[in-house]
Design goal:
The chain is built from 15 helices and no strands. By secondary structure, it is mainly alpha-helical.
Length: 329
């Protein structure tokens, strides 16, 4: 069970690692000044592709839920990210956005009954400190609207993560992922047309390669892995993995663009990774000592009777088998 959980964590971590390459792809392959267009192209075609592959549409209440989740996880999040990116240095926006794990932990405690521990709070604070060391620069200017947009982006994404856990769709994972991508892309499309105008006429092969990467890898694959992680793990565990994005973005800039990597950034990256790993640790379950009153229950759980005979079956054995195969996020 532990190996299974670690495997799910590692696979889910691929999503924010992929998102960490978005800045590199945007600056090197896409036309400049079109972040909202990149958001639409990233979400809408990928969502339509997944819907066509699964041939499933929402039913009943899931039309509304898909719209809400698509707005929170994609449409509103991308729009607020755009405002923050234009009004703040990237380091400030990333540092403000790093409060998301703490927001998710609070929302999960209120909406899902997930226990808010001191370790989670300290890990979240350490994550913010690590990201600030990693990406924040001295003399970075602050803009009230930009900070509000960055914080708003963290809030809507946190709400989307928690609601994605609370609202479990009966449809396949790829179908629900497609619904959210389509909803988010459709909500973002008029905003992109109003702010940036129509798409540029002459797109180069380089531009198409970048858009293709964002659509297939950055959206269809990455969001499917992300939502799969939310289904299998706790929202708090998943959202801490999002701290990998600035780490990967910094490493990508260093490796691909020759950007400087200072000792302070190295320390910040180590703090982020330490906070991320610490947040994934689960509290050890306390063992209850079996007293005289528990002897019968213990024998039933082990499948033996008073004379050491194994019963032919029953509820106790079924519960024991199902409990051993469960996964606690």
């Amino acid at each position: 069970m532990l190996r299974n959980r670690i495997g799910i964590i590692l696979v889910t971590a691929l999503a924010p690692a992929v998102w960490g390459t978005t800045y590199l792809v945007t600056t090197e392959l896409l036309p400049p000044g079109r972040p909202l267009l990149a958001g639409v192209v990233r979400a809408l075609p990928a969502g339509l592709l997944l819907v066509l592959l699964t041939r499933r549409l929402p039913q009943g209440i899931w039309w509304l839920r898909a719209l809400v989740l698509g707005a929170l996880n994609i449409g509103a999040f991308f729009a607020l990210l755009f405002v923050a990116a234009y009004r703040l240095p990237g380091g400030v926006a990333a540092t403000v956005g790093a409060v998301q794990p703490l927001l998710v932990a609070g929302l999960a405690a209120g909406l899902l009954g997930e226990r808010l521990t001191l370790r989670t709070v300290l890990s979240a604070v350490a994550g913010v400190a690590g990201v600030s060391l990693l990406v924040l620069r001295a003399g970075a200017r602050l803009d009230g609207l930009g900070v509000a947009a960055a914080l708003g982006g963290a809030v809507v994404m946190a709400a989307g993560v928690v609601l994605s856990k609370r609202w479990v769709s009966p449809a396949p994972l790829l179908a629900t992922t497609g619904w959210q991508l389509v909803a988010g892309g459709l909500l973002l499309l008029p905003v992109a047309l109003f702010v940036e105008g129509p798409p540029p006429a002459g797109l180069t092969a380089r531009n198409l390669l970048g858009y293709g990467y964002l659509t297939i890898v950055g959206a269809a694959v990455a969001y499917a892995l992300w939502f799969r992680g939310i289904r299998a793990l706790t929202p708090t565990s998943v959202t801490f993995l999002g701290l990998l994005s600035p780490v990967v973005a910094t490493l990508a800039g260093w490796l691909a663009l020759g950007q400087d990597l200072t000792p302070a950034q190295g320390l910040g990256g180590a703090i982020v990774l330490g906070a991320l790993v610490t947040a994934q640790l689960r509290r050890p379950q306390r063992r209850v000592a079996a007293g005289p009153d528990h002897v019968g229950a213990g024998r039933a759980a082990t499948g033996t009777g008073a004379a050491g005979e194994r019963p032919s079956g029953g509820a106790a054995g079924t519960v024991a088998r199902s409990g051993a195969g469960g996964l606690a996020g």
